[in-house]
């Protein structure tokens, strides 16, 4: 295999002069071959040689940088880099800065985030603030970057940082009340922060917060989901909190076709909510708007029928749901 | 935008695309080379879905896929923590002489899943496949919380790899490699307050995890 040392590749590095590059062995009958560029081949041939020799050296470390540039998803290269860092006793803070630069250009690469976690584990609680700041910057660019959220959740739980997290969620939701990732993070903080006392303690104020969000934007699905989530595993409390059915009725009085309100009402009724007169009147009114010809039925069936009309995307689901109602 | 009635499934274009990919992957895919087997799975799978599998040499493909399998040495302790599955690419595959060094065994759950899927598609009889080491070592990748790590040298653990492990066990019709109860527990823990599933416990529910 010719190695022209095309420009700046490792074949032209003086420190690599004694290394015999190891070509890729594609096997007897390669299928679905990749048309590698020469510079890619060159770097990987040198990587293979050093990896196979288990050479945990400074020059190997430098080579991994080249390999990572070309192929940031190659977990073998990252693994080798970690072995070298440990063998050389490298400065891990510097390494974190290095990987952050790469992460900025490859924000959705699993190996990079895994490397960050490995480093953060070693650096300990002192690095928590840096990691929170880095994920925050990543989320400014892409509010839904799953890796950033995952890393942030891990950092807070493993290294600390609960103190400012609820405020961070408040800020994100102020900027965009539709940000479901922020609602999800809020749920994590409310339920798991050792500083807040747990869901049972936080529930009351959270219900008020969520209802305010619903009333501001009833078409926003996130707070509806969150509201129900606040009562997860506690159906009795859910149906006995007047505010829940209250917000459904309030919304329906303004927008009779709001699917989220109707569907939550349906859930409440199925869980045993005793319908108030106000509820019955509201459903009657909605029935008249949605299908004046609708036959007289019980409340639950009526709401189901209304949903079949108001939520055409899920008409099959509501039809099926109807069949589960006991006669 | 055109009249939606005129929208057609351009079958010949799709076939041509997959056929071309199966013949050779352009250099842009070099940065995905660790997932070489998975890319092959997409190409072969695509052709299969379009009923155009005759365009590829199925025996050659099976032979090629099997060449990625990592076998333990005769007296290797299969329970030593290494996973004996399939590497995803030649770049993570090293000469078998040194397979004793766990660093040189690049077996990966996603590659293994892709490998078995390709073998099934091209009609290879998985019953004749030597899966003993694979099934007994896959268990080593399962974590105390029920999730799976994809590779024994260390990597992120999440729901994707529970799926890969389950698919592998299902295709081989042998579930000894997985503690199903623990896996179920992990899956349940991935369910978000909104009913959907996230990738790890606590994370936002995401369509791809359902």
From TrEMBL, chain A:
<dbReference type="InterPro" id="IPR002088">
    <property type="entry name" value="Prenyl_trans_a"/>
</dbReference>
<keyword id="KW-0808">Transferase</keyword>
<keyword id="KW-0637">Prenyltransferase</keyword>
<keyword id="KW-0460">Magnesium</keyword>
<dbReference type="GO" id="GO:0005953">
    <property type="term" value="C:CAAX-protein geranylgeranyltransferase complex"/>
</dbReference>
<dbReference type="GO" id="GO:0005965">
    <property type="term" value="C:protein farnesyltransferase complex"/>
</dbReference>
<comment type="similarity">
    <text>Belongs to the protein prenyltransferase subunit alpha family.</text>
</comment>
<dbReference type="Pfam" id="PF01239">
    <property type="entry name" value="PPTA"/>
</dbReference>
<feature type="region of interest" description="Disordered">
    <location>
        <begin position="1"/>
        <end position="24"/>
    </location>
</feature>
<dbReference type="GO" id="GO:0004662">
    <property type="term" value="F:CAAX-protein geranylgeranyltransferase activity"/>
</dbReference>
<keyword id="KW-0677">Repeat</keyword>
<comment type="function">
    <text>Essential subunit of both the farnesyltransferase and the geranylgeranyltransferase complex. Contributes to the transfer of a farnesyl or geranylgeranyl moiety from farnesyl or geranylgeranyl diphosphate to a cysteine at the fourth position from the C-terminus of several proteins having the C-terminal sequence Cys-aliphatic-aliphatic-X.</text>
</comment>
<dbReference type="GO" id="GO:0004660">
    <property type="term" value="F:protein farnesyltransferase activity"/>
</dbReference>
<protein>
    <recommendedName>
        <fullName>Protein farnesyltransferase/geranylgeranyltransferase type-1 subunit alpha</fullName>
        <ecNumber>2.5.1.58</ecNumber>
        <ecNumber>2.5.1.59</ecNumber>
    </recommendedName>
</protein>
Automatic annotation (TrEMBL), chain B:
<keyword id="KW-0808">Transferase</keyword>
<feature type="domain" description="Prenyltransferase alpha-alpha toroid">
    <location>
        <begin position="9"/>
        <end position="206"/>
    </location>
</feature>
<protein>
    <recommendedName>
        <fullName>Prenyltransferase alpha-alpha toroid domain-containing protein</fullName>
    </recommendedName>
</protein>
<comment type="similarity">
    <text>Belongs to the protein prenyltransferase subunit beta family.</text>
</comment>
<dbReference type="GO" id="GO:0046872">
    <property type="term" value="F:metal ion binding"/>
</dbReference>
<keyword id="KW-0479">Metal-binding</keyword>
<dbReference type="InterPro" id="IPR045089">
    <property type="entry name" value="PGGT1B-like"/>
</dbReference>
<dbReference type="GO" id="GO:0005953">
    <property type="term" value="C:CAAX-protein geranylgeranyltransferase complex"/>
</dbReference>
<dbReference type="Pfam" id="PF00432">
    <property type="entry name" value="Prenyltrans"/>
</dbReference>
<dbReference type="GO" id="GO:0004662">
    <property type="term" value="F:CAAX-protein geranylgeranyltransferase activity"/>
</dbReference>
<dbReference type="InterPro" id="IPR001330">
    <property type="entry name" value="Prenyltrans"/>
</dbReference>
<keyword id="KW-0637">Prenyltransferase</keyword>
<dbReference type="InterPro" id="IPR008930">
    <property type="entry name" value="Terpenoid_cyclase/PrenylTrfase"/>
</dbReference>
<keyword id="KW-0677">Repeat</keyword>
<keyword id="KW-0862">Zinc</keyword>
């Amino acid at each position: 295999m010719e190695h022209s040392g095309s420009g700046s590749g490792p074949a032209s590095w003086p420190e690599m002069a004694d290394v015999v590059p190891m070509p890729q062995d594609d096997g007897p009958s390669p299928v679905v071959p990749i048309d590698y560029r020469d510079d890619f081949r060159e770097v990987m041939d040198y990587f293979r040689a050093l990896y196979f020799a288990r050479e945990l050296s400074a020059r190997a470390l430098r080579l991994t940088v080249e390999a990572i540039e070309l192929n940031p998803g190659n977990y073998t290269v990252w693994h080798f880099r970690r072995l070298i860092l440990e063998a050389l006793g490298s400065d891990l803070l510097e390494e974190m800065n290095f990987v952050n630069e790469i992460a900025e250009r490859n924000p959705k690469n699993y190996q990079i985030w895994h490397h960050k976690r490995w480093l953060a584990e070693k650096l300990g609680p002192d690095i928590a603030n840096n990691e929170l700041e880095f994920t925050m910057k990543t989320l400014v660019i892409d509010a839904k970057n799953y890796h950033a959220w995952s890393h942030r959740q891990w950092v807070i739980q493993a290294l600390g940082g609960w103190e400012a997290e609820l405020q961070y969620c408040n800020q994100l939701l102020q900027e965009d009340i539709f940000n479901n990732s922020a609602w999800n993070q809020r749920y994590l903080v409310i339920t798991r922060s050792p500083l807040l006392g747990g869901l049972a303690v936080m529930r009351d104020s959270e219900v008020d917060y969520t209802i305010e969000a619903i009333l501001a934007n009833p078409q926003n699905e996130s707070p509806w989901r969150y509201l129900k989530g606040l009562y997860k595993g506690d159906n009795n409390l859910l149906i006995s909190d007047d505010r829940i059915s209250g917000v459904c009725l309030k919304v329906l009085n303004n927008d009779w076709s709001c699917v989220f309100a109707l569907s939550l009402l349906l859930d409440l009724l199925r869980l045993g909510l005793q319908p108030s007169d106000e509820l019955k009147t509201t459903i009657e009114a909605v029935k008249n708007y949605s299908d004046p010809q609708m036959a007289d039925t019980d409340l639950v069936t009526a709401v189901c029928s209304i949903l079949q009309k108001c939520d055409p995307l899920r008409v099959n689901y509501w039809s099926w749901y109807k069949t589960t109602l006991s006669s | 935008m055109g009249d939606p009635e005129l929208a057609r499934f351009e079958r010949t274009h799709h076939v041509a695309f997959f056929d071309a990919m199966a013949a050779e992957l352009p250099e842009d895919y070099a940065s995905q080379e660790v997932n070489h087997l998975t890319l092959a799975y997409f190409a072969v799978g695509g052709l299969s879905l379009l009923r155009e599998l005759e365009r590829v040499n199925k025996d050659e493909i099976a032979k090629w896929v099997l060449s990625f399998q990592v076998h333990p040495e005769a007296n290797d302790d299969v329970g030593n923590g290494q996973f004996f599955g399939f590497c995803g690419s030649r770049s993570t595959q090293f000469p078998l002489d040194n397979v004793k060094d766990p660093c040189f065994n690049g077996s990966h759950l996603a590659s293994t899943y892709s490998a078995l899927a390709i073998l099934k598609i091209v009609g290879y009889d998985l019953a004749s496949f030597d899966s003993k080491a694979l099934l007994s070592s896959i268990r080593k990748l399962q974590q105390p919380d029920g999730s799976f790590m994809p590779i024994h040298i260390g990597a992120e653990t999440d729901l994707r790899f529970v799926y890969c492990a389950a698919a592998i066990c299902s295709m081989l019709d042998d579930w000894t490699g997985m503690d199903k109860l623990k896996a179920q527990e992990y899956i349940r823990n991935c369910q978000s307050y909104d009913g959907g599933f996230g990738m790890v416990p606590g994370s936002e529910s995401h369509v791809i995890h359902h």
